Amino acid sequence: MNENIGIYFSEARQAKGLSIEDIAEFLHIKSEYIQAIEAGTFDFNLPDIYKRGFYKSYADFLGLNIEEMMAKCPIKPFETLESSQKRREMIAQVAKKTQEVNHDNIKTSFDDDPNRPSTPLPSSFPMRHIFVLKVMGIVLAAILFLALMLYPLITNFSSKPKPSVATEDLRELIQKRIILRANGDVKLMIRNEEDKSKIFSGTLNKGGEKIIAYKKPIQIYFDHGEALVIEMDNGEYLHPDSGRGGLQIK
């Protein structure tokens, strides 16, 4: 694939003011996997189903168009039209071969029987056996057909990652989220209220924005409150007082 789809991810991430480490923490995906997706190489040693899952989760988190991004994804789904067609052809060949084998066995068994009477048997006698063997051949073909149909489903199910725990962790992590937008240059320092650990410290330039995800109350300190707009996850907006100050977000 000539197009480097990784640029869509890197540009969307940078526009949101997120680092690769931020994404890795939010999605519980190793940072080197995130880097490989943004580079468009997918150069990490995992099955394709994991790569497609990470690709989709990353695109969804950044708010990209999932349908368009999955169409651009160079890692194709396990089940393709070509493989499905090949499997149907193989099933048809197995059924045909089974019927041929049954027919040959019937002919051989009658020809090689030393006790076979010299006079012809009633026509109904071999026809009953032929019918039974044909039914057995159809049953065998049906069993093979079901086995071939169910094999990719079973292997896909067994090889899929268990997303439930990671999904629940992600939902819990981004259950509370705010977006800081700057109408002018403003210095910020954001930390957890409980343990005073720092979440972010730096300058948000005019027109920039910063997404902050948190689970417990945080404190935001600023030097130019009039330049700061805070969008809450419920759609409300906070406009701090002008000048230097701080506020608590629960």
Commentary on this structure:
- The model is unreliable at 121-125 and 162-167 (pLDDT under 50).
- The strands form two sheets. This protein has a four-stranded antiparallel beta sheet, with no helix packed on it. A four-stranded antiparallel beta sheet has the order 3-2-5-8, with no helix packed on it.
- The radius of gyration is 32 Å and the shape is elongated.
- 51% of the residues lie in helices and 17% in strands.
- The protein contains eight helices and eight strands.
- It has three domains: 6-72, lambda repressor-like DNA-binding domains (434 Repressor (Amino-terminal Domain), Orthogonal Bundle); 81-159; 175-249, Immunoglobulin-like (Sandwich), CATH 2.60.40.50.
- Strand 2 and strand 3 (198-204) form a beta hairpin.
- Helix 1 (6-15) packs across helix 3.
- The relative contact order is 0.09.
- By secondary structure, it is of the alpha+beta class.
- The chain has helices at residues 6-15, 20-27, 31-39, 48-62, 66-72, 81-111, 124-159, 163-173; strands at 176-182, 186-192, 198-204, 209-214, 218-222, 228-231, 237-238, 245-249.
